[in-house]
Design goal:
Elements: H1 20-33, H2 37-50, H3 58-71, H4 75-88, H5 93-105, H6 109-122, H7 126-151
Helix pairs in contact: 1-2, 1-3, 2-3, 3-4, 3-5, 4-5, 5-6, 6-7
Keywords: TPR repeat
Organism: Ktedonobacter racemifer DSM 44963
TPR repeats: 59-92
Length: 152
Amino acid sequence: MAKKAHTSKKKNRIITNVSPVDKQLDLIGSQIVQRNYVEAVATCERLLNYLPQHAPQRADVLAQLGTAQGMLQHFPQSYDAFTQARTLEPKNAELWYNRSMANRFTMRFGQALRDIERAIELNTRSELTEQFDEALQFSRQLTEKSHHIART
């Protein structure tokens, strides 16, 4: 007669060490998903005051801040946040793309075009290619129109 395998009635627990910074980043992400952009901005600002200037998470916080500011239509602040994030991660195509979008809304059409061109150069994610290409075409149109208006 075969013996029954003994199964433990205790639940398997997975213990993870989540840093306070990661918890705050998760909170910011939740606030943005819930469209609570004012709170997301406040949480980002608190976290930026806490983080050292060269902390690896700083670019993530700045990117979230840029997103929240953009959703609040605070485009100069969004531009500033994406510019700072891009300085920390100069090869991040999504930061270049997002700064390009902020440039559009602050009427910096030439800079928006240069930023989206750089995003395309740096892009390694095929799922973003179409979105970036559409943004490039639109930025070209805006730049051409603004140059035409300036000449007349």
